[in-house]
Amino acid sequence: MYMFHYLLILWSCSLHLFIPPLCLQQDSCETNMLVWTVCAALIVCGVLLRHPYLFQDVQYVLAKIKRRRFVLKCMQTNYSILDRFLDLVKTQPQKTLIYFKDEMFTYREADVLSNRAARAFLQAGCVKEGDAVALFLGNQPMFLWLWLGLLKIGCPGALLNSNIRSKSLLHCLNCSGATTLVASEELLDAVKEVLPHLHEQQITVFILADRCETAGVESFIDKMNQASSEPISKELRSHLTMQSPAAYIYTSGTTGLPKAAVVTYSKVWNFSLLLATTGVNSKDVIYDTLPLYHSTGLLVFTGAVERVCCCHLLLCAGIPVVLRSKFSASQFWDDCRKYNVTVIQYIGEIMRYLCNTPQKLSDKNHKVRLAVGNGIRADVWWDFVRRFGEIQIREFYGATEGNFALLNYSSKMGALGRHTFLHKMFFPYAVIKYDADKGEPLRDSSGFCMEVEKGEPGLLVTEITAKAPFTGYVTDLNQTEKKKLHNVFKKGDLYFNTGDLLRIDEDNFMYFHDRVGDTFRWKGENVATAEVADILVLTDCVKEANVYGVKVPGQEGRAGMAAVTLMDGLKFDSTVVFKHVEDFLPSYARPRFLRIQRSLDITGTFKLIKTKAVEQGFNPNEITDPLYFLNEKERNYTPLTPDVFDSIVAGNIKI
């Protein structure tokens, strides 16, 4: 039926566009033109009454096709996002690229500073062609100068999460193959914790400070100040293609420690073009409070470097970005007014935090017209628009390592996008039946996967092709293979396993349902349960740990919870466990709830069973085992009583 309707509307348009000119040779040209126009209009109206989103659906797919063609053209000419940046430096050197606090940086200044960063790397003699350099810092303009500088000398940046510590920090460095680390001055203590290991591995360590007294750590600012700002020779990056890595961005994935997703130059284009299709234009000012080490934060910067007019695929002017070191709900709208922001970027937590701030008369006094992001709940969406004005919200779906994206271009509250025949035809994907207990797709008697019915949650999978590649994770072939599904609908086909459960409603809107495997999302971050469990069992009193995420009313994602068993003869030492997770886990990964059990439920193959524990949640009225919650006020794990539970559910105790 979908194919029939698409063909019908295209046929009616062709009648209107091509038949009338043919009648110019006839005497009754005007009459014929009127007849054809009326017929075409009637057919179109008939289709639209039954399918009101048809024009939007077609427009979206056409825009995606044009985006893909543009990227393919860039691949043929080897025209990268860096080339685009350098073109903008020539055409608009004095236009503002970045606002940060009370500073502003033009395209010309960005070029000069990134030239100095590039030359500092080269003159230090620690970086050669193709070497990865790990960047360990929060949001600040220097992050961009370093990354641009690395691109200019043909090296990828390994963008480390500034919250990681100890074992995770070393792991991320090792899997990227980075031989150089550049860290901000604020993270010097985290670097010192692992400095002996870094020296053992002969990793050169720089700190972003004017001077450094720590042995084995050099000042990078000093090297930049002494370096020339002259342009970098293109010969230094002549080995690059659009399939070369521009960055490594870390993702928790389904199990274990973070994995470094390979972000190629062509994928950077795709990131930036996704922003363009949301409705951002060259007159906008974008406000970015999201971490630059995430693909969503990087998306805003690359989107600012270029803007593609989807109607003509012509490159237009760059877009200024207001960069903030850290999100602040209390200062969010003041910043928007100060910088005349028109576009904001979000994750679900940001929108909820903004809605939870005290109401002000100035709530609608701003110029923001568009919000772009992911993870907003339908109720928060409604509350946000009601309170802060008719701001268009463009929710998108995608994964850093994925080969597919969705966009809610219809403004349907709570949806990720639309499921249409045309979209599926040009960008093959499917929502298939999934066995949560076995942790794998369901297959029929022939061994092939089955698509879900409307309203039924299923696993989103996307076909891997030359036009939609999956580049995987650097130095981790095992995890790369785990994300691939073979023989999904026919022998020899290959699909990317997103690890996300989606559902499609009767009107073909797509909604996020849950994540599968051993990962849950909390505070806008993916948390790998195996990593948290490994940290917990390092404490003297904990013998085993089963980590999972539980739903908390009024909160996005799932809060971390761990069912643990204790060492024989030892009691639960709450203060020690609290101090341990505080030292070794970032705040979003620390278990909010602990459950003390005599033994953990396992399968016949000794795999931990999480389904039952997830269903039971953290309700002390239904669980007889001792329960504790992470009490940040008392800096301890304190008993989770029924009264405390009620206060958490009511939102009186923040977790």
UniProtKB/TrEMBL annotation:
Signal sequence range: 1-25
Source species: Astatotilapia calliptera (Eastern happy)
Localization per record: Cell membrane
Domain AMP-binding enzyme C-terminal: 531-607
Family, per entry: Belongs to the ATP-dependent AMP-binding enzyme family.
MF terms in GO: long-chain fatty acid transmembrane transporter activity; long-chain fatty acid-CoA ligase activity; nucleotide binding
Topology versus the membrane: Multi-pass membrane protein
Reactions catalysed, as given in the entry: a long-chain fatty acid + ATP + CoA = a long-chain fatty acyl-CoA + AMP + diphosphate; a very long-chain fatty acid + ATP + CoA = a very long-chain fatty acyl-CoA + AMP + diphosphate; tetracosanoate + ATP + CoA = tetracosanoyl-CoA + AMP + diphosphate
Keyword tags: Cell membrane, Fatty acid metabolism, Ligase, Lipid metabolism, Lipid transport, Membrane, Nucleotide-binding, Signal, Transmembrane, Transmembrane helix, Transport
GO annotations of cellular component type: endoplasmic reticulum membrane; plasma membrane
Leading EC class: ligase
Transmembrane segment boundaries: none
Gene3D superfamilies named in the record: 3.30.300.30, N-terminal domain of ligase-like (3.40.50.12780)
Alphabetized Pfam families for the sequence: AMP-binding (PF00501), AMP-binding_C (PF13193)
Domain AMP-dependent synthetase/ligase: residue ranges: 89-407
Enzyme Commission designation: 6.2.1.3
Protein name listed in UniProt: long-chain-fatty-acid--CoA ligase
